[in-house]
Amino acid sequence: MRNLITAVFISLMFSSFVSAAEMQHHQHASQDVAVYHSKGTVKAWGEQKVSLAHPAIPALNWPPMTMNFLQPQPPLPALAAGTAVEFSFRQVDGGYQLTAIRASQD
C-alpha cells in the first residue's frame, strides 16, 4: 500500500510539472513579436544580410542611418542597389531581420 501511495504521489507531481511547462510554453508562443515598417534605399544585397539606408524610425528611437538587416530563410528575392523600398522587420537574436521588402510604388 505504501508503494502505491508513493507511486500516486510521484505521478501527481510529475503531471503538475508537465502542465506548468505546457502553460509556460503556450504563453511564450502567444506573445506578439513587434513588426516595424519603414521606407529606405537598398545599399547592398547579400544572401545573409541586406544593407538599407532608412529615415528615422520613431518607434525605436532610431535616427536616419544605414544598417544591415538579417535575411530570413529562405532569403527574400534580391533587389538592386539604389532601389527605393518599403520594408518590414522584427527584432531577433543577433539583430533585426527583414520580414518583407518591396520596391516602392512612388
From TrEMBL:
Organism superkingdom: Bacteria
Asked if the keyword Signal belongs to this entry, the reply reads yes
Which keywords, in A-to-Z order, does the entry hold? Signal
N-terminal signal peptide: 1-20
Question: What protein name does the entry list?
Answer: Copper-binding protein
